[in-house]
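Rotation project, supervised by the postdoc (A.L.). Task for the rotation student: set up a whole-complex structure prediction and record inputs and outputs verbatim in this book. Inputs entered:
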Amino acid sequence: MIWLIVGIATVMLFSGFEMFVVLGVPGYLIKLAYFENLPDAVLVQKMIGGINHDILLAIPFFMFAAEMMSDGRLAGLLGGAAQACFRWVRGGSAYAAIASCMAFGAVSGSAPAAVAALGRIIHPPMIKSGFRQEFSLGLIVSAAETALLIPPSISLIIFGWLTETSISKLFAAGLVIGILLGLAFGVLVWVEVRRRGIKADAAAAKDASAQVLKGTAWALGMPVVILGGIYSGVFTATEAAAVSVVYAVFVEAVVFRTLTFGRFIRIAQRTAVMTSVIFMLLATGSIIAYFVIIAQLPQAVIAMLQAMGAGPLLFLLIVNIVFIIAGMFIDPGTAQVILVPVLFPVAVALGIDPVHFGLVVGLNVCLAMITPPFGLDIFVAASTLNKPVTEIIRGVTPFIVVNLIVLVIITYVPGVATFFPNLLTGLR
Amino acid sequence: MDTGPVGTTKRQLARVADLLGLIERYLTAILMIVMTALYAFNVLIRMVLPTHASTFAWIDEATRYMMIWVVFLAAGVTLEIGRHVSVDLIRPFLRPRALTVLFIIIDIVGLLSSLAAMVFSFNLAVFVANTGQISPTLGIPTYVLYVAPTLGFASLAFRFLLRLINIRDARRAPVAADWLGGVSS
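Outputs recorded:
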Protein backbone atom coordinates (compact mmCIF):
# COMPACT_ATOMS: atom_id res chain seq x y z
CA MET A 1 0.00 0.00 0.00
CA ILE A 2 2.72 2.45 0.97
CA TRP A 3 4.47 1.90 -2.37
CA LEU A 4 1.24 2.67 -4.19
CA ILE A 5 1.02 5.98 -2.32
CA VAL A 6 4.69 6.77 -2.97
CA GLY A 7 4.05 5.91 -6.64
CA ILE A 8 1.07 8.26 -6.81
CA ALA A 9 3.10 11.02 -5.15
CA THR A 10 5.97 10.54 -7.62
CA VAL A 11 3.67 10.66 -10.63
CA MET A 12 1.96 13.78 -9.25
CA LEU A 13 5.36 15.37 -8.62
CA PHE A 14 6.69 14.89 -12.12
CA SER A 15 3.46 15.74 -13.92
CA GLY A 16 3.52 19.25 -12.53
CA PHE A 17 0.98 19.26 -9.71
CA GLU A 18 1.46 22.17 -7.32
CA MET A 19 3.89 20.94 -4.69
CA PHE A 20 1.58 21.55 -1.74
CA VAL A 21 -0.91 19.21 -3.43
CA VAL A 22 1.89 16.68 -4.07
CA LEU A 23 2.68 16.70 -0.34
CA GLY A 24 -0.86 17.04 1.00
CA VAL A 25 -2.75 14.39 -1.00
CA PRO A 26 -0.35 11.51 -0.20
CA GLY A 27 -0.40 12.70 3.43
CA TYR A 28 -4.17 12.24 3.45
CA LEU A 29 -3.90 8.85 1.67
CA ILE A 30 -1.42 7.62 4.30
CA LYS A 31 -3.90 8.66 6.99
CA LEU A 32 -6.73 6.81 5.23
CA ALA A 33 -4.66 3.69 4.73
CA TYR A 34 -2.88 3.39 8.05
CA PHE A 35 -4.43 5.69 10.63
CA GLU A 36 -8.13 5.36 10.05
CA ASN A 37 -8.99 6.44 13.58
CA LEU A 38 -7.08 9.66 13.32
CA PRO A 39 -9.53 12.55 12.79
CA ASP A 40 -9.07 14.49 9.53
CA ALA A 41 -8.64 17.66 11.54
CA VAL A 42 -5.31 16.36 12.83
CA LEU A 43 -3.84 16.99 9.38
CA VAL A 44 -4.80 20.67 9.60
CA GLN A 45 -3.49 20.79 13.15
CA LYS A 46 -0.14 19.37 11.99
CA MET A 47 0.01 21.88 9.13
CA ILE A 48 -0.62 24.88 11.35
CA GLY A 49 1.45 23.51 14.23
CA GLY A 50 4.29 22.98 11.77
CA ILE A 51 4.54 26.64 10.84
CA ASN A 52 3.46 28.23 14.12
CA HIS A 53 7.05 28.88 15.23
CA ASP A 54 8.89 31.99 16.25
CA ILE A 55 12.04 30.92 14.33
CA LEU A 56 10.12 30.78 11.05
CA LEU A 57 9.14 34.45 11.36
CA ALA A 58 12.75 35.15 10.40
CA ILE A 59 11.96 34.00 6.84
CA PRO A 60 9.32 36.63 5.93
CA PHE A 61 11.31 39.30 7.78
CA PHE A 62 14.58 38.60 5.97
CA MET A 63 12.75 38.36 2.63
CA PHE A 64 10.97 41.65 3.31
CA ALA A 65 14.27 43.42 4.03
CA ALA A 66 16.00 41.83 1.04
CA GLU A 67 13.16 42.77 -1.32
CA MET A 68 13.33 46.33 -0.14
CA MET A 69 17.08 46.59 -0.60
CA SER A 70 17.34 44.66 -3.86
CA ASP A 71 14.37 46.39 -5.45
CA GLY A 72 16.18 49.70 -5.21
CA ARG A 73 19.70 50.76 -6.04
CA LEU A 74 21.53 48.04 -4.15
CA ALA A 75 22.54 45.81 -7.08
CA GLY A 76 23.93 48.71 -9.08
CA LEU A 77 25.87 50.05 -6.10
CA LEU A 78 27.38 46.70 -5.15
CA GLY A 79 28.31 45.92 -8.76
CA GLY A 80 29.91 49.36 -9.24
CA ALA A 81 31.85 49.27 -6.00
CA ALA A 82 33.15 45.74 -6.60
CA GLN A 83 34.28 46.63 -10.12
CA ALA A 84 36.08 49.70 -8.83
CA CYS A 85 37.88 47.62 -6.18
CA PHE A 86 39.09 45.01 -8.65
CA ARG A 87 39.85 47.23 -11.63
CA TRP A 88 43.65 46.89 -11.36
CA VAL A 89 43.55 43.10 -11.27
CA ARG A 90 43.76 40.99 -14.43
CA GLY A 91 40.23 39.77 -15.12
CA GLY A 92 38.98 42.04 -12.35
CA SER A 93 35.44 42.15 -13.72
CA ALA A 94 35.03 38.43 -12.95
CA TYR A 95 36.34 38.74 -9.39
CA ALA A 96 34.03 41.72 -9.01
CA ALA A 97 31.14 39.53 -10.15
CA ILE A 98 31.87 37.00 -7.39
CA ALA A 99 32.38 39.73 -4.79
CA SER A 100 29.13 41.50 -5.64
CA CYS A 101 27.19 38.22 -5.49
CA MET A 102 28.66 37.54 -2.04
CA ALA A 103 27.88 41.06 -0.85
CA PHE A 104 24.35 40.71 -2.22
CA GLY A 105 24.08 37.42 -0.32
CA ALA A 106 24.88 39.23 2.91
CA VAL A 107 21.70 41.25 2.42
CA SER A 108 19.48 38.67 0.72
CA GLY A 109 19.12 34.93 1.14
CA SER A 110 17.98 34.10 -2.38
CA ALA A 111 20.25 32.95 -5.21
CA PRO A 112 17.73 33.46 -8.02
CA ALA A 113 17.22 37.02 -6.77
CA ALA A 114 20.99 37.56 -6.95
CA VAL A 115 21.08 36.33 -10.55
CA ALA A 116 18.12 38.48 -11.51
CA ALA A 117 19.36 41.64 -9.80
CA LEU A 118 23.06 41.42 -10.64
CA GLY A 119 23.12 39.51 -13.93
CA ARG A 120 22.62 42.51 -16.22
CA ILE A 121 25.11 44.57 -14.24
CA ILE A 122 28.02 42.14 -14.06
CA HIS A 123 27.71 40.32 -17.39
CA PRO A 124 28.57 43.14 -19.88
CA PRO A 125 31.85 44.20 -18.18
CA MET A 126 33.06 40.59 -18.22
CA ILE A 127 32.38 40.28 -21.94
CA LYS A 128 34.10 43.63 -22.54
CA SER A 129 37.25 42.53 -20.74
CA GLY A 130 37.47 39.44 -22.94
CA PHE A 131 35.83 36.57 -21.06
CA ARG A 132 33.95 34.03 -23.12
CA GLN A 133 30.16 34.38 -23.05
CA GLU A 134 29.84 30.83 -21.69
CA PHE A 135 32.28 31.43 -18.86
CA SER A 136 30.62 34.66 -17.82
CA LEU A 137 27.17 33.08 -17.73
CA GLY A 138 28.42 30.07 -15.80
CA LEU A 139 30.14 32.30 -13.28
CA ILE A 140 27.10 34.50 -12.67
CA VAL A 141 24.77 31.53 -12.20
CA SER A 142 27.21 29.81 -9.82
CA ALA A 143 28.48 32.80 -7.84
CA ALA A 144 24.87 33.60 -6.97
CA GLU A 145 24.83 30.39 -4.92
CA THR A 146 26.93 32.06 -2.26
CA ALA A 147 23.82 34.11 -1.43
CA LEU A 148 22.24 30.88 -0.18
CA LEU A 149 25.07 30.23 2.28
CA ILE A 150 26.14 33.67 3.44
CA PRO A 151 23.72 34.73 6.17
CA PRO A 152 20.88 35.53 6.16
CA SER A 153 20.19 32.21 4.48
CA ILE A 154 16.61 31.06 4.04
CA SER A 155 17.60 27.44 3.38
CA LEU A 156 19.67 27.27 6.57
CA ILE A 157 16.74 28.70 8.56
CA ILE A 158 14.52 25.97 7.12
CA PHE A 159 17.12 23.36 8.09
CA GLY A 160 17.36 24.85 11.59
CA TRP A 161 13.59 24.72 11.99
CA LEU A 162 13.31 21.13 10.70
CA THR A 163 16.04 19.88 13.04
CA GLU A 164 16.04 22.34 15.96
CA THR A 165 19.66 23.20 15.24
CA SER A 166 20.88 26.63 16.38
CA ILE A 167 20.34 29.16 13.58
CA SER A 168 23.25 31.30 14.76
CA LYS A 169 25.65 28.34 14.54
CA LEU A 170 24.33 27.44 11.10
CA PHE A 171 24.76 31.06 10.00
CA ALA A 172 28.36 31.13 11.26
CA ALA A 173 29.18 27.95 9.36
CA GLY A 174 27.32 29.23 6.29
CA LEU A 175 29.44 32.37 6.31
CA VAL A 176 32.68 30.36 6.26
CA ILE A 177 31.52 28.00 3.56
CA GLY A 178 30.00 30.76 1.46
CA ILE A 179 33.35 32.53 1.47
CA LEU A 180 35.17 29.25 0.73
CA LEU A 181 32.89 28.64 -2.25
CA GLY A 182 33.50 32.20 -3.49
CA LEU A 183 37.26 31.66 -3.23
CA ALA A 184 37.00 28.32 -5.07
CA PHE A 185 35.19 30.05 -7.94
CA GLY A 186 37.91 32.71 -7.79
CA VAL A 187 40.53 30.03 -8.47
CA LEU A 188 38.61 29.01 -11.57
CA VAL A 189 38.60 32.65 -12.71
CA TRP A 190 42.38 32.86 -12.10
CA VAL A 191 42.93 29.82 -14.34
CA GLU A 192 40.65 31.21 -17.05
CA VAL A 193 42.40 34.61 -16.94
CA ARG A 194 45.78 32.98 -17.52
CA ARG A 195 44.51 30.61 -20.19
CA ARG A 196 42.86 33.35 -22.23
CA GLY A 197 45.44 36.05 -21.53
CA ILE A 198 42.86 38.46 -20.13
CA LYS A 199 44.31 41.84 -19.10
CA ALA A 200 43.36 44.30 -16.43
CA ASP A 201 41.08 47.04 -17.70
CA ALA A 202 41.58 49.96 -15.35
CA ALA A 203 39.62 52.30 -17.55
CA ALA A 204 36.54 50.05 -17.55
CA ALA A 205 35.22 50.86 -14.11
CA LYS A 206 35.77 54.34 -12.79
CA ASP A 207 32.55 54.36 -10.90
CA ALA A 208 34.25 54.63 -7.52
CA SER A 209 32.57 57.93 -6.87
CA ALA A 210 32.01 58.95 -3.28
CA GLN A 211 28.32 58.41 -3.81
CA VAL A 212 28.72 54.78 -4.86
CA LEU A 213 31.01 54.03 -1.95
CA LYS A 214 28.70 55.74 0.52
CA GLY A 215 25.73 53.82 -0.85
CA THR A 216 27.63 50.56 -0.61
CA ALA A 217 28.61 51.29 2.95
CA TRP A 218 24.94 51.77 3.88
CA ALA A 219 24.01 48.51 2.16
CA LEU A 220 26.77 46.61 3.93
CA GLY A 221 25.62 48.03 7.25
CA MET A 222 22.84 45.46 7.01
CA PRO A 223 25.04 42.36 7.53
CA VAL A 224 26.82 44.24 10.33
CA VAL A 225 23.48 44.76 12.08
CA ILE A 226 22.39 41.17 11.45
CA LEU A 227 25.61 39.30 12.26
CA GLY A 228 26.88 41.73 14.88
CA GLY A 229 23.51 41.59 16.62
CA ILE A 230 23.30 37.82 16.58
CA TYR A 231 26.88 37.05 17.61
CA SER A 232 27.12 39.66 20.32
CA GLY A 233 24.10 37.95 21.80
CA VAL A 234 21.90 41.04 21.53
CA PHE A 235 19.41 39.52 19.07
CA THR A 236 18.04 36.11 18.23
CA ALA A 237 18.01 35.36 14.49
CA THR A 238 14.32 36.30 14.28
CA GLU A 239 14.87 39.57 16.12
CA ALA A 240 17.80 40.39 13.87
CA ALA A 241 15.53 39.72 10.90
CA ALA A 242 12.88 42.15 12.17
CA VAL A 243 15.52 44.79 12.88
CA SER A 244 16.97 44.31 9.38
CA VAL A 245 13.58 45.35 7.95
CA VAL A 246 13.65 48.53 10.02
CA TYR A 247 17.20 49.16 8.81
CA ALA A 248 16.18 48.59 5.19
CA VAL A 249 13.25 51.00 5.54
CA PHE A 250 15.58 53.57 7.06
CA VAL A 251 18.19 53.24 4.28
CA GLU A 252 15.65 53.26 1.46
CA ALA A 253 13.41 55.98 2.84
CA VAL A 254 15.80 58.32 4.64
CA VAL A 255 19.23 57.81 3.06
CA PHE A 256 18.39 56.98 -0.57
CA ARG A 257 14.93 58.61 -0.51
CA THR A 258 13.59 56.06 -3.00
CA LEU A 259 10.89 54.44 -0.89
CA THR A 260 7.45 55.73 -1.75
CA PHE A 261 4.35 54.47 0.02
CA GLY A 262 3.16 52.71 -3.13
CA ARG A 263 6.47 50.92 -3.52
CA PHE A 264 6.41 49.90 0.12
CA ILE A 265 2.97 48.28 -0.29
CA ARG A 266 4.04 46.50 -3.50
CA ILE A 267 7.12 45.10 -1.78
CA ALA A 268 4.97 43.91 1.14
CA GLN A 269 2.57 42.19 -1.28
CA ARG A 270 5.46 40.53 -3.07
CA THR A 271 6.93 39.34 0.23
CA ALA A 272 3.54 37.90 1.18
CA VAL A 273 3.47 35.89 -2.06
CA MET A 274 7.02 34.60 -1.48
CA THR A 275 6.13 33.74 2.12
CA SER A 276 3.08 31.81 0.98
CA VAL A 277 5.15 29.82 -1.54
CA ILE A 278 7.64 28.64 1.09
CA PHE A 279 5.19 28.15 3.94
CA MET A 280 2.65 26.13 1.96
CA LEU A 281 5.55 23.71 1.38
CA LEU A 282 6.56 23.75 5.03
CA ALA A 283 2.96 23.32 6.20
CA THR A 284 2.10 20.37 3.96
CA GLY A 285 5.59 18.95 4.48
CA SER A 286 4.81 18.88 8.23
CA ILE A 287 2.09 16.31 7.55
CA ILE A 288 4.61 14.05 5.82
CA ALA A 289 7.20 14.67 8.55
CA TYR A 290 4.61 13.66 11.17
CA PHE A 291 3.98 10.31 9.47
CA VAL A 292 7.71 9.79 8.88
CA ILE A 293 8.22 10.06 12.63
CA ILE A 294 5.33 7.86 13.76
CA ALA A 295 6.21 5.26 11.12
CA GLN A 296 9.75 5.29 12.61
CA LEU A 297 11.25 5.61 9.16
CA PRO A 298 14.59 7.01 10.42
CA GLN A 299 14.94 3.96 12.72
CA ALA A 300 14.37 1.72 9.71
CA VAL A 301 17.10 3.53 7.79
CA ILE A 302 19.48 3.22 10.76
CA ALA A 303 18.77 -0.51 11.02
CA MET A 304 19.39 -0.90 7.30
CA LEU A 305 22.71 0.98 7.51
CA GLN A 306 23.78 -1.12 10.49
CA ALA A 307 22.94 -4.28 8.58
CA MET A 308 25.13 -3.01 5.75
CA GLY A 309 27.86 -2.16 8.24
CA ALA A 310 27.83 1.44 6.97
CA GLY A 311 29.37 4.21 9.06
CA PRO A 312 29.08 8.00 8.81
CA LEU A 313 31.34 8.19 5.74
CA LEU A 314 29.20 5.95 3.59
CA PHE A 315 26.02 7.50 4.98
CA LEU A 316 27.16 11.01 4.00
CA LEU A 317 28.06 9.75 0.55
CA ILE A 318 24.54 8.35 0.21
CA VAL A 319 23.07 11.64 1.50
CA ASN A 320 25.02 13.59 -1.13
CA ILE A 321 23.98 11.30 -3.96
CA VAL A 322 20.32 11.37 -2.91
CA PHE A 323 20.33 15.17 -2.64
CA ILE A 324 22.16 15.69 -5.93
CA ILE A 325 19.70 13.49 -7.81
CA ALA A 326 16.70 15.04 -6.04
CA GLY A 327 18.12 18.51 -6.68
CA MET A 328 18.37 17.89 -10.40
CA PHE A 329 14.62 17.46 -10.64
CA ILE A 330 12.79 18.98 -7.70
CA ASP A 331 13.05 22.30 -6.01
CA PRO A 332 15.56 22.34 -3.14
CA GLY A 333 13.05 23.58 -0.55
CA THR A 334 10.86 20.55 -1.18
CA ALA A 335 13.88 18.23 -1.17
CA GLN A 336 14.77 19.53 2.29
CA VAL A 337 11.23 19.24 3.64
CA ILE A 338 10.93 15.63 2.44
CA LEU A 339 14.45 14.31 3.07
CA VAL A 340 15.73 16.05 6.19
CA PRO A 341 13.14 14.59 8.64
CA VAL A 342 14.16 11.10 7.48
CA LEU A 343 17.92 11.63 7.27
CA PHE A 344 18.68 13.96 10.18
CA PRO A 345 17.88 11.48 13.01
CA VAL A 346 20.12 8.97 11.21
CA ALA A 347 22.94 11.51 11.04
CA VAL A 348 22.61 12.24 14.75
CA ALA A 349 22.56 8.52 15.56
CA LEU A 350 25.79 8.11 13.61
CA GLY A 351 27.41 10.87 15.63
CA ILE A 352 27.49 13.50 12.89
CA ASP A 353 27.49 17.11 14.16
CA PRO A 354 24.11 18.76 13.36
CA VAL A 355 25.82 21.92 12.05
CA HIS A 356 28.11 19.84 9.84
CA PHE A 357 25.14 17.91 8.47
CA GLY A 358 23.25 21.17 7.97
CA LEU A 359 26.00 22.58 5.81
CA VAL A 360 26.30 19.38 3.76
CA VAL A 361 22.58 19.76 3.08
CA GLY A 362 23.01 23.50 2.55
CA LEU A 363 25.69 23.03 -0.08
CA ASN A 364 23.55 20.44 -1.81
CA VAL A 365 20.74 22.97 -1.90
CA CYS A 366 23.16 25.35 -3.63
CA LEU A 367 24.19 22.74 -6.12
CA ALA A 368 20.55 22.01 -6.89
CA MET A 369 20.19 25.63 -8.04
CA ILE A 370 22.74 25.16 -10.83
CA THR A 371 22.47 21.51 -11.86
CA PRO A 372 20.68 20.86 -15.14
CA PRO A 373 18.10 20.01 -16.24
CA PHE A 374 16.16 21.98 -13.62
CA GLY A 375 18.48 24.38 -11.84
CA LEU A 376 16.40 27.42 -11.03
CA ASP A 377 19.34 29.84 -11.38
CA ILE A 378 19.93 28.65 -14.94
CA PHE A 379 16.41 29.61 -15.96
CA VAL A 380 16.48 32.93 -14.15
CA ALA A 381 19.74 33.78 -15.94
CA ALA A 382 18.31 32.65 -19.28
CA SER A 383 15.30 34.93 -18.89
CA THR A 384 16.98 37.99 -17.38
CA LEU A 385 19.99 37.95 -19.73
CA ASN A 386 18.05 36.58 -22.68
CA LYS A 387 20.58 33.82 -23.40
CA PRO A 388 19.95 30.22 -24.53
CA VAL A 389 19.71 27.66 -21.70
CA THR A 390 22.11 25.29 -23.50
CA GLU A 391 24.87 27.88 -23.50
CA ILE A 392 24.44 28.51 -19.78
CA ILE A 393 24.51 24.78 -19.06
CA ARG A 394 27.81 24.44 -20.98
CA GLY A 395 29.24 27.39 -19.07
CA VAL A 396 28.13 26.15 -15.66
CA THR A 397 29.73 22.69 -16.00
CA PRO A 398 33.24 23.57 -14.71
CA PHE A 399 31.63 25.39 -11.80
CA ILE A 400 29.60 22.30 -10.92
CA VAL A 401 32.88 20.35 -10.78
CA VAL A 402 34.41 22.95 -8.43
CA ASN A 403 31.24 22.85 -6.37
CA LEU A 404 31.46 19.07 -6.06
CA ILE A 405 35.08 19.34 -4.91
CA VAL A 406 34.03 21.82 -2.21
CA LEU A 407 31.17 19.48 -1.28
CA VAL A 408 33.60 16.58 -0.83
CA ILE A 409 35.81 18.74 1.38
CA ILE A 410 32.90 19.90 3.54
CA THR A 411 31.55 16.38 3.77
CA TYR A 412 34.75 14.70 4.86
CA VAL A 413 36.43 17.49 6.82
CA PRO A 414 33.75 18.36 9.37
CA GLY A 415 36.01 20.95 10.97
CA VAL A 416 35.54 23.30 8.01
CA ALA A 417 31.89 23.68 8.93
CA THR A 418 32.12 23.39 12.71
CA PHE A 419 35.33 25.33 13.47
CA PHE A 420 33.93 28.86 13.27
CA PRO A 421 30.58 28.31 15.04
CA ASN A 422 32.40 26.48 17.85
CA LEU A 423 34.92 29.30 18.11
CA LEU A 424 32.12 31.89 18.41
CA THR A 425 30.31 29.89 21.08
CA GLY A 426 33.61 29.39 22.88
CA LEU A 427 34.20 33.14 23.01
CA ARG A 428 30.95 33.84 24.76
CA MET B 1 -13.21 36.42 -27.10
CA ASP B 2 -16.11 34.41 -25.75
CA THR B 3 -19.54 35.75 -26.36
CA GLY B 4 -23.01 34.76 -25.19
CA PRO B 5 -24.07 33.76 -21.69
CA VAL B 6 -21.02 31.54 -21.05
CA GLY B 7 -18.67 34.37 -21.94
CA THR B 8 -20.54 36.73 -19.65
CA THR B 9 -20.35 34.30 -16.73
CA LYS B 10 -16.63 33.88 -17.32
CA ARG B 11 -16.12 37.62 -17.38
CA GLN B 12 -18.06 37.96 -14.16
CA LEU B 13 -15.97 35.23 -12.53
CA ALA B 14 -12.81 36.98 -13.67
CA ARG B 15 -14.10 40.18 -12.09
CA VAL B 16 -14.80 38.34 -8.83
CA ALA B 17 -11.23 36.99 -8.95
CA ASP B 18 -9.87 40.49 -9.49
CA LEU B 19 -11.77 41.87 -6.54
CA LEU B 20 -10.86 38.94 -4.30
CA GLY B 21 -7.22 39.20 -5.36
CA LEU B 22 -7.19 42.90 -4.58
CA ILE B 23 -8.59 42.33 -1.09
CA GLU B 24 -6.18 39.46 -0.41
CA ARG B 25 -3.17 41.42 -1.63
CA TYR B 26 -3.86 44.50 0.45
CA LEU B 27 -4.80 42.53 3.56
CA THR B 28 -1.59 40.47 3.36
CA ALA B 29 0.50 43.59 2.71
CA ILE B 30 -0.98 45.32 5.77
CA LEU B 31 -0.49 42.18 7.88
CA MET B 32 3.14 41.92 6.69
CA ILE B 33 3.86 45.51 7.66
CA VAL B 34 2.05 45.42 11.01
CA MET B 35 3.61 42.07 11.91
CA THR B 36 7.12 43.34 11.22
CA ALA B 37 6.53 46.63 13.01
CA LEU B 38 5.14 44.88 16.10
CA TYR B 39 8.03 42.45 16.28
CA ALA B 40 10.64 45.19 15.85
CA PHE B 41 8.84 47.29 18.48
CA ASN B 42 9.02 44.34 20.85
CA VAL B 43 12.79 44.08 20.33
CA LEU B 44 13.13 47.79 21.02
CA ILE B 45 11.12 47.56 24.25
CA ARG B 46 13.15 44.61 25.42
CA MET B 47 16.37 46.56 24.86
CA VAL B 48 15.30 49.97 26.13
CA LEU B 49 12.68 49.19 28.78
CA PRO B 50 13.27 45.56 29.79
CA THR B 51 11.05 45.99 32.83
CA HIS B 52 8.05 46.61 30.58
CA ALA B 53 8.77 43.64 28.29
CA SER B 54 6.14 41.45 29.97
CA THR B 55 3.44 44.01 29.11
CA PHE B 56 4.06 43.23 25.45
CA ALA B 57 4.41 39.45 25.72
CA TRP B 58 1.27 39.12 23.55
CA ILE B 59 3.19 40.43 20.53
CA ASP B 60 5.02 37.15 20.17
CA GLU B 61 1.79 35.25 19.71
CA ALA B 62 0.15 37.96 17.63
CA THR B 63 2.95 38.00 15.07
CA ARG B 64 2.82 34.22 14.64
CA TYR B 65 -0.96 34.38 14.13
CA MET B 66 -0.44 37.13 11.55
CA MET B 67 2.21 35.12 9.72
CA ILE B 68 -0.16 32.18 9.41
CA TRP B 69 -2.88 34.49 8.10
CA VAL B 70 -0.44 35.95 5.55
CA VAL B 71 0.47 32.46 4.31
CA PHE B 72 -3.12 31.38 3.68
CA LEU B 73 -4.53 34.72 2.54
CA ALA B 74 -1.82 34.96 -0.11
CA ALA B 75 -2.08 31.31 -1.22
CA GLY B 76 -4.92 31.83 -3.70
CA VAL B 77 -3.48 34.82 -5.47
CA THR B 78 -0.12 33.03 -5.59
CA LEU B 79 -1.76 30.17 -7.44
CA GLU B 80 -3.45 32.57 -9.84
CA ILE B 81 -0.14 34.10 -10.90
CA GLY B 82 1.50 30.68 -11.13
CA ARG B 83 4.07 31.16 -8.38
CA HIS B 84 3.50 28.01 -6.33
CA VAL B 85 6.33 25.53 -6.75
CA SER B 86 5.77 22.74 -9.25
CA VAL B 87 8.00 20.47 -11.34
CA ASP B 88 7.42 20.65 -15.08
CA LEU B 89 9.37 17.58 -16.05
CA ILE B 90 7.05 15.97 -18.57
CA ARG B 91 5.19 19.05 -19.77
CA PRO B 92 7.56 19.83 -22.69
CA PHE B 93 7.16 16.31 -24.08
CA LEU B 94 3.36 16.29 -24.23
CA ARG B 95 1.23 17.03 -27.27
CA PRO B 96 -1.27 19.87 -26.83
CA ARG B 97 -4.22 17.49 -26.33
CA ALA B 98 -2.44 15.41 -23.71
CA LEU B 99 -1.32 18.59 -21.98
CA THR B 100 -4.90 19.82 -21.84
CA VAL B 101 -6.00 16.52 -20.29
CA LEU B 102 -3.15 16.68 -17.75
CA PHE B 103 -4.05 20.27 -16.81
CA ILE B 104 -7.68 19.26 -16.31
CA ILE B 105 -6.65 16.39 -14.02
CA ILE B 106 -4.31 18.66 -12.03
CA ASP B 107 -7.04 21.26 -11.60
CA ILE B 108 -9.69 18.73 -10.56
CA VAL B 109 -7.37 17.12 -8.00
CA GLY B 110 -6.34 20.59 -6.80
CA LEU B 111 -9.97 21.71 -6.53
CA LEU B 112 -11.13 18.59 -4.67
CA SER B 113 -8.19 18.49 -2.27
CA SER B 114 -8.53 22.21 -1.52
CA LEU B 115 -12.23 21.72 -0.81
CA ALA B 116 -11.44 18.78 1.47
CA ALA B 117 -8.75 20.78 3.30
CA MET B 118 -11.21 23.67 3.61
CA VAL B 119 -13.81 21.39 5.22
CA PHE B 120 -11.22 19.84 7.60
CA SER B 121 -10.03 23.30 8.61
CA PHE B 122 -13.59 24.53 9.11
CA ASN B 123 -14.45 21.52 11.27
CA LEU B 124 -11.33 22.05 13.34
CA ALA B 125 -12.16 25.75 13.75
CA VAL B 126 -15.69 24.88 14.92
CA PHE B 127 -14.37 22.19 17.26
CA VAL B 128 -11.83 24.54 18.83
CA ALA B 129 -14.42 27.32 19.05
CA ASN B 130 -16.71 24.99 21.01
CA THR B 131 -13.98 24.24 23.53
CA GLY B 132 -13.83 27.99 24.16
CA GLN B 133 -10.03 27.84 24.18
CA ILE B 134 -8.33 31.23 24.53
CA SER B 135 -4.74 31.90 23.43
CA PRO B 136 -2.41 32.20 26.45
CA THR B 137 -0.98 35.70 26.06
CA LEU B 138 -2.97 37.32 23.28
CA GLY B 139 -6.30 36.52 24.89
CA ILE B 140 -8.21 35.93 21.66
CA PRO B 141 -10.03 32.67 20.81
CA THR B 142 -7.63 30.04 19.42
CA TYR B 143 -10.02 29.10 16.61
CA VAL B 144 -8.94 32.29 14.80
CA LEU B 145 -5.82 30.34 13.85
CA TYR B 146 -7.89 27.74 11.95
CA VAL B 147 -10.08 30.25 10.17
CA ALA B 148 -6.99 31.18 8.13
CA PRO B 149 -6.62 27.78 6.37
CA THR B 150 -10.41 27.59 5.98
CA LEU B 151 -10.43 30.83 3.98
CA GLY B 152 -7.09 30.06 2.31
CA PHE B 153 -8.18 26.70 0.96
CA ALA B 154 -11.53 28.18 -0.12
CA SER B 155 -9.62 30.77 -2.10
CA LEU B 156 -7.34 28.09 -3.55
CA ALA B 157 -10.39 25.99 -4.54
CA PHE B 158 -11.84 29.03 -6.31
CA ARG B 159 -8.57 29.58 -8.23
CA PHE B 160 -8.33 25.90 -9.21
CA LEU B 161 -11.93 26.14 -10.45
CA LEU B 162 -11.08 29.22 -12.52
CA ARG B 163 -8.10 27.46 -14.06
CA LEU B 164 -10.26 24.44 -14.81
CA ILE B 165 -12.60 26.57 -16.91
CA ASN B 166 -9.69 28.39 -18.57
CA ILE B 167 -9.75 31.66 -16.69
CA ARG B 168 -6.44 33.05 -15.43
CA ASP B 169 -4.30 30.04 -16.31
CA ALA B 170 -0.72 31.14 -15.63
CA ARG B 171 0.58 27.88 -17.14
CA ARG B 172 -0.69 28.90 -20.58
CA ALA B 173 -0.18 32.64 -20.54
CA PRO B 174 1.35 34.86 -17.86
CA VAL B 175 -1.33 36.41 -15.68
CA ALA B 176 -0.91 40.16 -15.55
CA ALA B 177 0.51 41.08 -12.17
CA ASP B 178 2.05 44.52 -12.49
CA TRP B 179 1.90 44.87 -8.72
CA LEU B 180 4.41 42.05 -8.45
CA GLY B 181 7.21 43.69 -10.42
CA GLY B 182 10.75 43.53 -9.10
CA VAL B 183 13.25 40.73 -9.21
CA SER B 184 11.65 38.32 -6.75
CA SER B 185 11.63 34.66 -7.63
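Student's summary: The CA atoms of residues 144 and 273 of chain A lie 22 Å apart.
Supervisor addendum: Residues 16-427 of chain A form one domain.
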